[in-house]
Amino acid sequence: MYYFRVLFVRIIVRINIFLFLFLLLYFKSxxxxxxxxxxxxxxxxxxxxxxxxxxxxxxxxxxxxxxxGFMYRFNVHSRLSLRFNYTVGNVEAYDxxxxxxxxxNRNLDFKSRIxxxxxxxxxxxxxxxxxxxxxPGTAYIITQLGVFYxxxxxxINGQEVKLQGVGTEGQGSALGRKRSYSNFQISIPLxxxxxxxxGKRATFNVxxxxxxxxxxxxxxxxxxxxxDPTLLAAANGQTAADLNNRSLDGGRYGRRGxxxxxxxxxxxxxxxxxxxxxxxxxPKLR
Length: 286
Prior knowledge:
By secondary structure, the protein is of the alpha+beta class. The protein has helices at residues 2-31, 36-39, 101-106, 229-236, 238-244, and strands spanning 40-52, 65-77, 80-94, 109-124, 137-149, 153-156, 159-162, 184-197, 202-213, 264-275. The protein folds into two domains: 1-31; 39-275, Porin (Beta Barrel), CATH 2.40.160. It has an eight-stranded antiparallel β-barrel with strand order 1-2-3-4-5-8-9-10. The chain is elongated and about 70 Å long. The N and C termini lie far apart (65 Å).
């Protein structure tokens, strides 16, 4: 009887050891498989933002302002990622900084806070894997679709005025050819970047992306010419008339903007990201 009990205990011990080793190998293999968390990254980015439009047609990084935000990246495989980012920044421009006499005389200015949420793809030029000596870094391209909130404003008589509801070009009245524009607009970020692996859990990135927009009113300037101040004051108020034509010489027949073009804005910066989980590197696609 004693012999059978000893044999039974030995069998149980061996079964437990076998199960322990089996479970250990199983969970180890599972931990090494790519999963949602091991493929996910979360990061913060800091950089600068500037605007291109009627008040700044050619100067890169003119009046660039501090900007930043957060980013989430899901690595589909070693060449392709899904990327979502939230960015907050400021843009501004002043005719007084122009070298053109016509623009200086126009005497317009604006500033606006930009809040953007965008998502799309990030395609690596070369395979990229965390902690890999063979694939430690890559350049990439960015293509996204975003929505942003703008709030153009200017200063008149020592007071800041939010321009969207003023109707400086007759928006919302019989004088304006366009309806009042919305603070919410669509953007298409297109850009280039590069990243390098910082071990198995982090990356450092730098990129720049220009935002194609479908509005001409980031700067509240879209019409070609000034309106009759008397008619505009009667339709949208005296503030609208005063802000429509701020030219230094007071001329009524100068050029206000360019209705054939849209406004753009650009963000450039650096980013530090961290993986949300451990596991094997992403599936490699050459």
